[in-house]
Amino acid sequence: MSVAVVGSLNVDRFARVERLPQPGETVMATDTFTRFGGKGANQAVAAARLGQRVHLIGALGSDAAGAEYRERLQEEGIDAGAVVSKPGDTGSAAILVERSGENCIVVAAGANGRLEPADILAARERIATAQVLLLQLEVPLPAIAAAVQIAAEAKVPVVLNPSPWRPDFPFAQTKLHTVIVNAQEVRAWLGEPAYPAGLPLEQVVVTQGGSETLGFTAHRRIVVAPRRVQPVDTVGAGDAFAGAFAVALAERFALEQALEFANAAGALATLAVGAQEAMPTRSAVDARLRDGAPRA
After folding, report:
1. What distance in Å separates the CA atoms of residue 68 and residue 134, rounded to the nearest whole number?
2. Residue 107: pLDDT band by 50, 70, 90 thresholds?
């Protein structure tokens, strides 16, 4: 059993601030540090820590950061044999985190922007034999399309977390099983949380931070309340949720169970600093689900 992830790998440079700056404003950082990130790699780490075999497909630069990142993936037990090396810099991100835990992020694509359909086709077997293919939108759309095509031919369900949001994504022409969007993204896409009738899609999941998580199919609307936590850093919460949801789908959880499982993982990921460092283990998520923690 495995999850294939096609996505980005970034070196994240964090700055902690008392509050996020307004346009044109300069604020002083109280702390700075560097972590490994990128939505693709973050979600891969989330899935791996939850007990799944993970195949990561993406691109790193030919720089020292790329070499260090490969060692990092090996430490997490992730198959990085399909992570190709591209001339130039590894992708990077600048992340501001305020005292409340809210954040804003600026991404430089680097090698991620040079991921090509040929790189995806070379990893065909990893996608075709997986139980789930997990995607985001920090790599070029032609690479995403190639991965979806392989999955469709092999009847592998595709989970798309369309972040960062792209209004030009061809939802109507793309065979997807599940789309995971946040409250802002679903408004940009559909205007309101709903199931988009007529699209080649099984279900839509809407995350709303500390509010209820919504699940939609053509015939059902599911509402799952989040577990109450005091967040330290929300940077990795969305990626923890997506990775956990992919694991739940691979393990054939029903939608409501999958949302509960992913909610628990997302909540736990807010209790530590960083993205990958904060991803919870399977034992921690299972314990969270057993302990009857208060709902928000």
Report:
1. 24
2. confident
Q: Considering 12, 63, 239, 291, which one is annotated as catalytic?
A: 239
Question: Where do the structural domains in the chain lie, given as residue ranges?
Answer: 2-8+37-84+115-290
C-alpha distances out from residue 225 to 92, 209, 211, 235, 293, Å: 34, 11, 7, 20, 11
Query: Does residue 83 carry a pLDDT above 70?
Result: yes
Indicate if the pLDDT at residue 293 is higher than 60.
no
Strand partners, 3: 54, 132
Share of the chain above pLDDT 70, in %: 98
User: H or E stretch including 31?
Assistant: strand 29-37
Four-way CATH pick for 2-8+37-84+115-290: 3.40.1190.20, 3.90.180.10, 3.30.70.20, 3.10.450.50: 3.40.1190.20
**Furthest-apart CA atoms within the chain: distance in Å:** 52
Q: Does 63 qualify as catalytic in the annotation? A: no
Q: Is 294's pLDDT higher than 60?
A: no
